[in-house]
Amino acid sequence: MNRFRLVLALCFVIFCGATVSACALMLDWDPEGLPCEDNQICADGYSCLVNSCILENSIAKGETCNRNIQCAGELVCANFTCASPCTKYYESSAECPLGEYCMEHVDENGNFAGHCQASALCTAGEPCQEGRMCIEITTGSNACLLGCEISWSGEVYSDSCGGSQGVIKYCQPLGKRDQLVCRDTSVPGQEVGQPCDLVENTCSRGLACVNGICKRYCNLELPGNICGSEQCCDQGTYGVCDATCEI
Fold first, then answer.
1. CA 163 distance to own-chain centroid
2. Are 53 and 32 in contact (CB under 8 A)?
3. Mind listing the pLDDT tens digit for each residue in 222-233?
4. b/e string for 23-62 if b means 16 or more Cβ within 10 A?
5. Which of 169, 171, 104, 108 is nearest to 143 (CA)?
6. Residues with Cβ < 8 Å from 5, sequence gap 6 or more?
7. How many alpha carbons lie under 13 Å from residue 209 in its C-beta half-sphere?
8. I need a labelling partner for 244 at 20 to 30 A (CA). Which of 80, 116, 137, 227 fits?
């Protein structure tokens, strides 16, 4: 009997020791890599990415993300990739390094924001994928965008952009060479003389955003019929109304 009690006591000690060790291991966990879902909360300082908790402010440029807070430093999460932020859409500026340009994306709050996008691997002025045109945005950076043409029936403007599923597109000059491309356009858009850009403050139909101001397109073959007291200024592939043509 005494031997039996001794064996039970020994087993109890071993079991308790193993249990305490297991509990200690459970308490000493690392939040990094723990499984999660988008609607679950990770530990403080961590967030969920592809079903795993990751340390916030840790993802490098070019790596996968789904929230701004996951990206290191001042980087933003743009189209599920950490990238440098910018504000001057499709313009030459010091915001983006050589070989990148400022492109828009919709952020996690549903607002437009800018990020530096790597240049498309195409030759400026040449066709690229899906029937698009390679547009030179800045020195050393190109984008593959849907080109367009403007046509006139006397004084009546039209372009080749059209639209689909409630998205209206108008023809707009873009890039170093002011090449015409189709851009999504808000309705109502900005009017003649109002400030504009190619993303958030787009011009109304029949207007071009030139140097940040909406100007009326004009028919170069009928220069006096649309512009009134202004001149119809030849911009290469299109014309716009301006008082001096110094644009």
1. 20
2. yes
3. 877 899 899 999
4. eeeeeeeeeeebebeeeeebeeebbbbeeebbbbeebeee
5. 104
6. none
7. 26
8. 137
| pLDDT value at residue 188 | 80
Q: 10 Å Cβ neighbour count for 113?
A: 19
- Written as six digits, the tokens of 42 are 């990770």
CB neighbour list of residue 155: distance below 8 Å, 6 or more residues apart: 219, 222, 225, 226
Which residues partner with 116 through β-bridges? 102
Please list the residues that pair with 18 across neighbouring strands: none
Which pLDDT does position 10 carry in this prediction? 35
- Hey, what are 198's tokens? 């190619």
Q: What is the mean pLDDT of the chain?
A: 84
Tell me which amino acid residue 219 is: N
d(CA 218, CA 148): 16
Q: Is 167 helix (H, G, I), strand (E, B) or coil?
A: strand
Give me the residues paired with residue 157 across strands: 152
Strand partners, 143: 135
For residue 14, what pLDDT is reported? 39
Q: For the residues 127-144, what does the mean pLDDT come to?
A: 90
DSSP state of 35: B
d(CA 118, CA 138): 11
pLDDT of the residue at 166? 67
Q: How far is 113 from 239, CA to CA, in rounded Å?
A: 30
- The pair of structure tokens assigned to 48 is 């969920």
Q: What is the pLDDT of residue 39?
A: 62
